[in-house]
Amino acid sequence: MSGKALAYDVAVLGGGPAGLAAALYAREANPDCKIAILERDARLGGILRQCIHNGFGLHYFREELTGPEYAARFADRIGTARIDVWTDTMALSFDEGGEIRAVGPAIGAGIFRARSIVLAMGCRERPRGALRIAGTRPAGVYTAGSAQRLVNIYGKLPGRRVAILGSGDIGLIMARRFVWEGAEVPFVAEILPHSSGLNRNIAQCLEDNGIPLWLSHTVVSIRGRERVEGVTVARVDPETLAPIRGTERDVPCDTLLLSVGLIPENELTRGAGVEIDPRTGGATVDERRETSMPGVFACGNALHVHDLVDFVSEEAAIAGKSAADSLTQGRVRAERRAVRPGAGVRYVVPQWLSRDAKGRVEAYFRVERKLRDATVCVDVGGNTVLRVKRPVLAPGEMERVALDAAAIDGDATIRIEGGAV
C-alpha cells in the first residue's frame, strides 16, 4: 500500500463519543504523547450529531444536553489538546505491530503506525435481512437510525403512517419524533415480553404521546410492491418467540421502522485476530479495557452496547488513560482472573481482571429478564464475596456493580439470586 506513513503514540479508531473521550483522557494521562483520531465521517461526533433530543449528560456533566451539545463539549476540547484529527479517513485493518492501513482524501492509501490503539468504532443496526420477515421488498423499510438521520439532519420525513418493530431506544425516540412531525404511529411491536429500551423513554416517548406498545408481538410479513402498503402483526409464544397462528392482524402503513438491536462494529477487530466475546459481540477486555492483543484497547459501543452516552465516556476514559499509560509500562500481560456471567446474567464487562488490578473495578452487566427485589451476587471460589440488593433489574438497562479487586483472588462469577418477575 503506497502513500504517507505517519507515526503516533496513540491512535484512536473512531471519532464518536467513545473516541473523543478516549483521546482526551490519553492526552491527560500523557501530555507529551502524539495522538491521532481516525474518523470515517466528515465530522466528529458520531451518532450524537443526529440525536437532537435532550437527556444526555445527566451523569457525566450533571446537566441535561442534546446529543450535538454533548459531542461539542468534547470536540471543542479536541481542538486545543494537540490531537491530530483525520476525518473522511477509514481504517481498513490493523495488526499486532500497530500498523493501521487506512484510506482517505488527505492520506490517500496510507499507513499509520501507533504504539497503542484504541478501538472506538461504535455499532451498527441490525437490518431487515437478519429478521427473515416474509413479503415483498418495497420502498419504505428503514432502520431507526437511518430514519433519524433523514429527519434530523436532512429534514426529510420518510412516511406518514409509520409502524415500528422493536422497542430499542432509537425506535422509541423516533416514534415520538414522527408524532411530533405530524405522522401517525399505529404501534410499536416488541417480540420479547419486555421492552428493550429505557423505562424513561417508554414513559416520555410512548405513554406521553399515546403510542401503543405491543409486547410479545412481531411483524410476520410486509405488503406492497413499489411502496409499503401494510404489515401483518402476530402475537408470539413468550418462550419460543414463534408466531401464534390465528393471532395475525393486518395494519395499514406506508413505512416500517426497524429498531431490533445494535451490533458492535468489529470487522477490524476480528480481522486482526483479537478475541471476541460471543455474548457482547465486542472484544474481551480486562479492567484497563485492554484486549487479548497487547497494546490494543476497546471501549464504547464497539465493546458492548450502552444505554447512556455518559457511561460510554466513563469507559472510554479508562481505555484512553490505559493506552497512554501502556507507552511507559510496556506490553507484558500479567496473569488474569476471569469474570463470568452466572445465573440470570447475559454478559459481564470486563471479562478479566489482571493480577495487579487494584482498588475498585466497575463491572457492567445485563440481566436476562426483568426482576424485582433481586440480589446481585459475586462468587469467588464457591464463596459469595458480595451481595447487593436491587429493587428492579431489567434487560433494557445496563447494570453496574463495584468489585474490590483485592477481594477477587480467583475467577469470579456474577449472578442474580431471588427476585420476582
Structural notes for this entry:
The protein is an alpha/beta fold and 421 residues long. It has three domains: 197 residues, FAD/NAD(P)-binding domain, CATH 3.50.50; 134 residues, FAD/NAD(P)-binding domain; 87 residues, Immunoglobulin-like (Sandwich), CATH 2.60.40. 19% of the residues lie in helices and 34% in strands. The strands form seven sheets. Strands 1, 2, 5, 6, 7, 8 and 20 form a seven-stranded mixed β-sheet that branches. It is globular, with a radius of gyration of 22 Å. The mean pLDDT is 93.
Secondary structure elements and their pairing?
Layout: E1 5-13, H1 17-29, E2 35-38, E3 54-56, E4 65-66, H2 67-78, E5 83-86, E6 90-94, E7 99-104, E8 108-119, E9 123-125, E10 134-135, E11 141-143, H3 144-152, E12 162-165, H4 169-180, E13 188-190, H5 199-206, E14 213-215, E15 217-223, E16 230-235, E17 249-252, E18 255-258, E19 262-264, H6 267-271, E20 296-298, H7 309-329, E21 336-341, E22 345-349, E23 352-354, E24 360-367, E25 371-380, E26 383-393, E27 399-404, E28 412-417
Parallel strand pairs: 1-2, 1-8, 2-5, 8-20, 10-15, 11-18, 12-13, 12-18, 13-14, 21-28
Antiparallel strand pairs: 3-4, 6-7, 7-8, 9-19, 15-16, 16-17, 21-23, 22-24, 24-27, 25-26, 25-28
Helix pairs in contact: 1-2, 1-7, 4-5
Please outline what is shown here.
The chain has 421 residues and is an alpha/beta fold. The chain is built from seven helices and 28 strands.
Features:
421 residues, five-stranded parallel beta sheet, 3 domains, 34% strand, globular, alpha/beta, Immunoglobulin-like, seven-stranded mixed beta sheet, 7 helices, FAD/NAD(P)-binding domain
